[in-house]
C-alpha cells in the first residue's frame, strides 16, 4: 500500500485495519452495529484479521483482556456506540486494573449527525474515560491511521486500556496517501534506577525477617519469581501476590508467593509483622472495601512502603539488579517447595474445598487456570503450588462476571493449551453468553461451575455488617434459588456440552473425561 | 418515625427506604454488592418494599423501565459501584430516550476509602451522567433522605432518569432526626400556553392536507389519541407515532397513527408531503443513522416543525385545548377503522410475517405487547390497529437487548395482564438472564423468539453501504449460527418452559396454549 511512493486511495476503515495489522494486532473481538458497517466491510477485505463475535459486549472486552494477558499483545475490540461501550465497561475496568493492553474501537454516528441527537447518541468520551487510560475521537478519514497507531502505543507503554472513537464518516470517507500504515516502534521498558535498587537493598539488609515483597506483572511470572525467590531465600523476605492476581505462573518447581487474602481480617493478619513492604509492579495493597472500625490500609502502622519498580518498568531486570546488588548468585539453587500434606483424593459429598483439591491434583502441565470462583475455591491457590506447572489468571477489578470471557480470550491466545475456568455461579451469570463463543471457536476450555445457588460472598458480608437473621427481602436478593439454574441446559443452549456432578467421585471422573477431550465442556459441581 | 416530634435514631440506609416508601416507590429492582449490604439490611427490615433480583444489571434497569412505563411511577434500582452501573447503562439509555422515570441507587465505597483507589473504585459520576438527567452523590447519613426526595422529584418532573450515589458510610451511618421521611409534592403538569395552541390551530387551518402530528407520551395513549383523532378527522391531519414508541395503546376502536419507519427511504417517503409537522411530546424525528448522501432530518425541505407541547407538559389537556380552539366537539364520533384485508390464518412454512399476523390476530384484550423484534415483526404494528385493545411498548433508544427485561418490568407492574414479548434472537442475547427473573416471580409473559440465526438488520445495513458479497469475517460477525442457539434449552436452564415451532400451525397452537396458561413461556419461532 503506497510503498512505492505512489499515492493510493483508501478509506479510514481500511487504514484502521491496515494499521492494526501492521502492528501485529490480528485478532478483533467484536459486537458490531450499524455505525460500524464500513469497518466490518474493511475487515471483510482483510482475512488476516481474525474476527471473533461475542453475543454481548462484556464477552468482547473480557475476552480481549484474557487474550492480551496471555500474549502480552493487545487485541482490538469493536463496539457499537455509547451503549455498546457501556455494556463492555465492567470488563474494561477489570482489564485496566489488571494493567492489560486493550485497543477499543467504538463506532459512533457520522460527526455531522451528532447535532441531531438521534436516539443512539450519547457522550461516548464521558463513558470511556473512567475505564480507559487513553481516549481519543478520530477527526476525519486521514486521522484514522495516526489515531490507531497512537492507540496501539498507548495500550502498551505502559500497558493499559486505549479507546478510540470512530465516527462513521471518518470510517467511510476516502482519502489519498502515499504513506504506508504506521509501524509503531516501542522503546523497551527500563529497569528502575540504580539508586532505587541500592536503597531497597539497604532496607532488606537492615530489616532481617521484616521485609515483604508484593510481586506483579513480569515479577509474578516464573522467571521473575525465581529471581525474587533467591532474594527471599537468602534474606528471609516474604513474597506475596496481590489480592487479585492478573497473571502468575505456579506449580511444582516454581517459587510460590502467598496471595494477600480478600477477607480483611485475614489480610491484616498476614501482613501484621511486615516492617518494610516492597512493591514490584503493584500498588500498595488496600482493603477491598471499607468496614466500620477497620483500617483501609493493610500494612501495620509504622510499616514503610517502598516502590522498587512500577508497572511499565522492566520488573524482572530490576529484580535481577536487586539480586546482584545483594550479592546473590544468579544460579543459587532454589529451596525445594515442601510437599503438601497428602490429604488423599476427596470422596463422597461434593464441597467447594473438595473441588479445589481435585482440580489442584489434576491440573495438566501447561494448563491455564482462570479463577473466578469467588468464595468457592479459596483453597485452590495455596494448593496450586504443588500442581503441575501452569499459568493462573483471574478477574482483577472486582467487577464480577469475567471468568467465562477471560477464559475464552486465553483459549484464543493459546490454542494448544488446556484452559480450566473455576467459576462461581453468581458471577457466571453476567456474561454466560461467552459460552457460545467457546462453542463457535471450539475452544479447549473446561468450565467448572461452583453451584452453591447463592451469592455466598454477600451472605458473608451481611454477617460482616452485623446481620444475624436474614429476612425475606435479603434472602430474595442474595440467593440464586427458586428456581435453581440448570447449568447443563444453559450450556447446551449455547452449544457447549455439559454434565452435573454431585459427588467427589463423579466430579473427578467428569473432570478426567473433560481433560482427555478437546473442545469446550462445562461441569456443574453441585455443592451441598 | 419521629412524627410525635421526638427525635429518633436512624441510619442513612433506613431513611432511604423510608423516603422511597413515603413516596409510593415500593418496588426495588436489584443486583446488590458488598458496598450495599447496609441498604440490603434496611430493605430487609421493610417488607413493604418488594425487592426483585436481576442476575445482571441490564435486567435490573430494563425491568425498572418497563415497570415505570406501565405504572407512570418510578421503581428504585440498586446497583453496585461503577461496574454495576456500567452494566446497567444501555437500558438506562433506553429509559432516558423513552422519558421514563427511574431512580437509581448506586452504592459506592465509604467516602474516606476512595482515596485509597481500591480495585472497585471508579468515577461513578462520569459514568452516570451520559444516561441520567440528574446525578448527585450523597454527602452524609443526614443527606440521604433529602437526596432521595430530590431524586424522586427529578425522576418525575419531567420524567427521566435520576441517579443517586450512596457511599457506604452515608448508608451505614446513624443520625438523629425528628423529621418524618419527606413526602414530595409534585405540581401537576401544565398544558402548553394558549398562545401556542392558537398558533398551531392557525397552522392547521392554513394548511389543509399538509399537516402531520407526532404523538408521544399521554398523547399516544387511548384518550389522547381519541382527541388527536377528532382533530385529524376534521382537518385531514396525518397522525404519526415516533420511530421507536415508548408506550401507546392500540387495537380496535382506537385511533391508530402510523409509525415513522426505521428504514431511511421509507421514512423520507412517508413524510414527503408534510408541510407542517406538529410535535406533541416528541422531539423532531431524525434519521436513526446517517448514510452517505442521505439527509439526517426526515421532514422535506421547507417543512415547518412546530412544538405544540413538550415532554413534561400536560399533553392530553393541550390536545383538548387545540380541539376546542378548532371548534371540534369533544364527542364527535370517531371514524371507524376500516377492517384489514382478511388474508386468512397463515399456514405452512413459518415466516416472520406469518408470526406477526398470527400474533396480531390472537392478542388478548388488555394484553401488553413488548416489541423488540427489530426487523422481524415490522408488519405487526400496522396489523395491531385491528387487534383486541392492548398496550404497546418497545425499546426506544436503539440499545438492543431490552425486550426481555422490559417485558419483565411490565409484568411486575401489571400482574393481571398478559405480556407478549416479540423478541429478535440477536437482541435477546444481551439480557437473556431476565428469563430467570420471569421464572422466579412467575410472571405471565409469553416470549416469542424470532429465530433467524442472524443480525438481519446488519445484513440490510451492509447492503446499504454497498456490500454485495459477504465474506468470511463479515459472515462470522453478522450470523448467529455455528452453532445455532437452542432456545428451548436456554429457557429451561433459566426455569422457563419453552417449545419450538417450525410451521404456522405449530406456532399458532403453541401460542394458543401459552395464552391459556399463566406464567412465563418461551416459543422459539424458527424461521426459514
Structure description:
2 copies of one chain form a homodimer. With 528 residues, chain A is α/β, with parallel strands linked by helices. The first copy, chain A, has 3 domains: 170 residues, Thiamin diphosphate (ThDP)-binding fold, Pyr/PP domains (Rossmann fold, 3-Layer(aba) Sandwich); 132 residues, TPP-binding domain (Rossmann fold), CATH 3.40.50; 175 residues, 3-Layer(aba) Sandwich (Rossmann fold). Chain A contains 20 helices and 20 strands. In chain A, helix 3 crosses helix 14. The model of chain A has no long low-confidence stretch (mean pLDDT 95).
Task: Describe the protein's topology.
2 copies of one chain form a homodimer.
Chain A: E1 8-11, H1 12-22, E2 27-30, H2 37-44, E3 50-53, H3 57-71, E4 76-80, H4 81-98, E5 102-108, H5 124-128, E6 134-137, H6 141-156, E7 161-167, H7 168-172, E8 174-177, H8 194-206, E9 211-215, H9 222-235, E10 238-241, E11 248-250, E12 258-259, H10 264-270, E13 276-280, E14 304-309, H11 315-325, H12 352-362, E15 368-372, H13 378-383, E16 390-394, H14 403-413, E17 419-424, H15 425-428, H16 434-440, E18 445-451, H17 456-464, H18 472-478, H19 487-493, E19 497-501, H20 504-516, E20 521-526
Parallel strand pairs in A: 2-3, 2-4, 4-5, 5-7, 6-7, 9-10, 9-13, 10-12, 13-14, 15-16, 15-17, 17-18, 18-20, 19-20
Antiparallel strand pairs in A: 1-8, 11-16
Amino acid at each position: 500500500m503506497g510503498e512505492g511512493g505512489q499515492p493510493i486511495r483508501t478509506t479510514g476503515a481500511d487504514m484502521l485495519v491496515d494499521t492494526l495489522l501492521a502492528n501485529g494486532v490480528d485478532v478483533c473481538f467484536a459486537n458490531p452495529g450499524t455505525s460500524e458497517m464500513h469497518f466490518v466491510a474493511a475487515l471483510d477485505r482483510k482475512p488476516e484479521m481474525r474476527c471473533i463475535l461475542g453475543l454481548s459486549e462484556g464477552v468482547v472486552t473480557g475476552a480481549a483482556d484474557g487474550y492480551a494477558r496471555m500474549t502480552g499483545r493487545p487485541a482490538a475490540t469493536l463496539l457499537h456506540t455509547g451503549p455498546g461501550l457501556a455494556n463492555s465497561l465492567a470488563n474494561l475496568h477489570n482489564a485496566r486494573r489488571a494493567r492489560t493492553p486493550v485497543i477499543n474501537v467504538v463506532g459512533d454516528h457520522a460527526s455531522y449527525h451528532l447535532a441531531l441527537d438521534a436516539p443512539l447518541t450519547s457522550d461516548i468520551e464521558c463513558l470511556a474515560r473512567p475505564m480507559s487510560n487513553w481516549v481519543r475521537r478520530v477527526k476525519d478519514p486521514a486521522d484514522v491511521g495516526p489515531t490507531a497507531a497512537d492507540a496501539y502505543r498507548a495500550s502498551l507503554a505502559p500497558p493499559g486500556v486505549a479507546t478510540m472513537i470512530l465516527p462513521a464518516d471518518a470510517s467511510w470517507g476516502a482519502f489519498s496517501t502515499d504513506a504506508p500504515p504506521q509501524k509503531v516502534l516501542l522503546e523497551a521498558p527500563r529497569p528502575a534506577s540504580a539508586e532505587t535498587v541500592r536503597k531497597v537493598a539497604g532496607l532488606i539488609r537492615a530489616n532481617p525477617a521484616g521485609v515483604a515483597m508484593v510481586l506483579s506483572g513480569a515479577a509474578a511470572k516464573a522467571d521473575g519469581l525465581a529471581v525474587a525467590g533467591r532474594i527471599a531465600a537468602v534474606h528471609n523476605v516474604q513474597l506475596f501476590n496481590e489480592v487479585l492476581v492478573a497473571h502468575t505462573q505456579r506449580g511444582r518447581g516454581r517459587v510460590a508467593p502467598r496471595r494477600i487474602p480478600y477477607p480483611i481480617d485475614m489480610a491484616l493478619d498476614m501482613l501484621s509483622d511486615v516492617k518494610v513492604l516492597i512493591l514490584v509492579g503493584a500498588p500498595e495493597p488496600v482493603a477491598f472495601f471499607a468496614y466500620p472500625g477497620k483500617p483501609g490500609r493493610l500494612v501495620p502502622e509504622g510499616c514503610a512502603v517502598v516502590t522498587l519498580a512500577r508497572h511499565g518498568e522492566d520488573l524482572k531486570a530490576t529484580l535481577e539488579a536487586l539480586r546482584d546488588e545483594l550479592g546473590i548468585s544468579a544460579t543459587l539453587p532454589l529451596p525445594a517447595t515442601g510437599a503438601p500434606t497428602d490429604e488423599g483424593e476427596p470422596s463422597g459429598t461434593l464441597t467447594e474445598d473438595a473441588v479445589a483439591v481435585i482440580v489442584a491434583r489434576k491440573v495438566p502441565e501447561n494448563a491455564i487456570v482462570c479463577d473466578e470462583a469467588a468464595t468457592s475455591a479459596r483453597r485452590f491457590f495455596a494448593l496450586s503450588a504443588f500442581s503441575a506447572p501452569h499459568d493462573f489468571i483471574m478477574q482483577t477489578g472486582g467487577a464480577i462476571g469475567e471468568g467465562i470471557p477471560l477464559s475464552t480470550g486465553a483459549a484464543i491466545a493459546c490454542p494448544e493449551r488446556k484452559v480450566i475456568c473455576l467459576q462461581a455461579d453468581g458471577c457466571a451469570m453476567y456474561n454466560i453468553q461467552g459460552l457460545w463463543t467457546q462453542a463457535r471457536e471450539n475452544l479447549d476450555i473446561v468450565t467448572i461451575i461452583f453451584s452453591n445457588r447463592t451469592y455466598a460472598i454477600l451472605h458473608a458480608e451481611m454477617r460482616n455488617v452485623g446481620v444475624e437473621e436474614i429476612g425475606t427481602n435479603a434472602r430474595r436478593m442474595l440467593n440464586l434459588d427458586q428456581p435453581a439454574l440448570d447449568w447443563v441446559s444453559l450450556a447446551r443452549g449455547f452449544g457447549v456440552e455439559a454434565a452435573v456432578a454431585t459427588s467427589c467421585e463423579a466430579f473427578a471422573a467428569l473432570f478426567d473425561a473433560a481433560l482427555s477431550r478437546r473442545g469446550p465442556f462445562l461441569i456443574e459441581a453441585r455443592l451441598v
